[in-house]
Design goal:
This protein has 81 residues and is mainly alpha-helical. The protein has one domain (2-70). 73% of the residues lie in helices and 0% in strands. The chain has three helices and no strands. It has helices at 2-22, 30-57, 61-70. Helix 1 runs antiparallel to helix 2.
Length: 81
């Protein structure tokens, strides 16, 4: 479950950084475009790992909520809860 939460938190952080830096910017440099593409590759890879974890361990929303409550990680963002 820790891996799931860290992946989820990392994805959320990457998306927030992307939005702060590039949202609404229609004139990015080639270097910035490459950085965006690399970020999207990392996010895609993490999303794949999350799906694999959900499938492998049959993780449910209630399991996530219970784990976050038991280990006092309620403040971690989780997109699916």
């Amino acid at each position: 479950m820790d891996i799931y939460l860290w992946l989820d938190y990392s994805i959320e952080t990457l998306w927030l950084n992307y939005m702060v830096r590039y949202q609404g910017d229609h004139s990015i440099t080639v270097e910035e475009e490459i950085a965006v593409l690399r970020t999207m590759d990392v996010i895609y890879d993490m999303e794949t790992k999350i799906i694999d974890l959900i499938d492998k361990y049959s993780i449910t929303f209630s399991m996530i909520d219970e784990y976050k409550e038991a280990y006092n990680v309620r403040s971690w963002p989780t997109r699916f809860c």
